[in-house]
Specification:
β3 and β4 form a beta hairpin. It is built from two helices and eight strands, in the order βαββββαβββ. With 138 residues, the protein is α/β, with parallel strands linked by helices. The radius of gyration is 16 Å and the shape is globular. The chain has one domain: 2,3-Dihydroxybiphenyl 1,2-Dioxygenase, domain 1, CATH 3.10.180. It has a four-stranded mixed β-sheet, covered by helices on one side. The longest helix is centred in the N-terminal third of the chain and has 11 residues. The relative contact order is 0.20.
Length: 138
């Protein structure tokens, strides 16, 4: 396994609940765990995350939910409908249902079909399917 150059590590309140959400509901792969440390390294189609039970080592201040205020993690996928259906089957809230968004990049627009969901601790995940490029309308 090759490690990405940047791998976010998320502090979580309940490692087992987080692993259930990421692995069982969303389909992340548990690459490895250190149960004694409440730690797991997980991946999804080339995206990598580390999750670790809150332990007093890494916090820069008091943690209160939602933990992920001010950040969202964009995760590339080609399975938007499968993910949404899995979340619905577990009766989990979807913060933003799938929609098409186009973002300007120079003289082009980059398209994504994307949705938002919060993990059990409030980290905002944005799953995005590539829709390609089109010219900016003048």
């Amino acid at each position: 396994m090759k490690f990405n150059k940047l791998i976010p590590e998320l502090s979580v309140s309940d490692i087992e609940k987080s692993l259930w959400f990421y692995a069982d509901v969303l389909g992340f792969k548990i690459e490895y765990r250190r149960k004694e440390a409440g730690f797991a390294f997980i991946s999804y189609k080339g995206s990598q995350l580390m999750i670790e039970q809150v332990n007093g080592k890494w916090e820069t201040g008091p943690l209160e939910k939602p933990f992920g205020r001010g950040i969202n993690f964009q995760i590339e996928t080609d399975e938007i409908d499968l993910l949404v259906n899995g979340l619905k089957s577990h009766e989990l809230e979807i913060k933003m249902m799938p929609k098409e968004n186009w973002y300007r990049k120079g003289n082009e627009l980059v398209g994504n079909r994307e949705f938002l969901v919060m993990d059990p601790d409030g980290y905002l995940l944005r799953f995005a399917e590539d829709l390609g490029y089109k010219p900016v309308q003048k």
